[in-house]
Amino acid sequence: QGSFGAVSTYRNLLTSREYAVKTIVTSEVRSRHKVLKEIEIFHHCKGQDNILQLVEFFEQADRFYLVFEKMEGGSLLETIERRGHLTEQEASLVIRDIAKALNYLHKKGIAHRDLKPENILCCKAGQLVPVKLCDFDLGSGVVSDSGGSGGSTPELLTPVGSAEFMAPEVVDVWVEQGWSYDKRCDLWSLG
Fold first, then answer.
1. How far apart are the first and last CA of the chain?
2. Is the dihedral of CA 121, 122, 128, 133 positive or negative?
3. Residue 187 contacts by C-beta under 8 Å, 6 or more apart in sequence?
4. What tens digit of pLDDT does each residue of 148-162 get?
5. What's the CA gap between 36 and 167, in Å, rounded?
6. Is 97 buried (19+), middle (13-18) or exposed (0-12) by CB count in 10 A?
7. DSSP 26
8. Distance of CA 63 to CAs 37, 75, 114, Å?
9. Could you say which of 104, 138, 168, 170 would form a disulfide bridge with 113 (CB–CB 3.0 to 4.6 Å)?
10. Which of the 8 DSSP states describes residue 23?
11. What does DSSP assign to residue 173?
């Protein structure tokens, strides 16, 4: 259960393959555009190994259904809580995977803006890595340019994210001591 939806496991009746399906009630989100922005970000990340893959989505009058590959290992937060701690070597492997995902996003001009252990999923039960980044509902969106390569991120003016992982420049905007920030805010959260 998240702030804008719930995730459940569903099985394809034809193939018996399981998927994670995020159900978003339209009345609980500010706008349809917000959900479509998240879908667009996932679309731009298709094929990146360390970002959760969106398989397809459906829209009904009152709900969106986002169908994702199923991650068997739960969130990184749950894994850390279960294990008690990570060794330096284990932490470096997790950081490597997340850094690959952020590098991919940032080259496309996308800032995640809510990087935290709850938004990182372990692919396999009982294994720490590989991990995949998920939950782009606070993502900055995709900037289109004439070359189509992205890369540039506009000034970000809205202070969003989780306080415990928020970069100082985002906090400055939050307390009205700053005007804007950019995708580098994710690097603070990664640290």
1. 26
2. negative
3. 102, 167
4. 455 565 566 565 666
5. 26
6. buried
7. G
8. 15, 25, 23
9. 138
10. E
11. H
Instruction: Give which of 183, 142, 132, 147 is closest to 33, Cα–Cα.
Output: 142
* Token representation of residue 149: 């390569």
Tokens of 176: 């009205």
Host H or E run for residue 186: helix 185-190
Starting at the edge strand found earlier in the chain, the sheet holding 54-59 runs 6-11, 18-25, 63-69, 54-59
Among the listed residues 114, 135, 137, 186, the single catalytic one is 114
- 128-147 pLDDT, tens digit per residue, is 999 999 988 877 866 655 44
For residue 149, the cross-strand partners are: none
Q: Which amino acid is at 54?
A: L
Helix (H, G, I), strand (E, B) or coil at 143: coil
Q: Which residue has the tokens 């995977």?
A: 97
Measured CA to CA in angstroms, residue 64 lies from 59, 60, 160 at distances of 5, 6, 23
Q: What are phi and psi of 6, to 5 degrees?
A: -125, 150
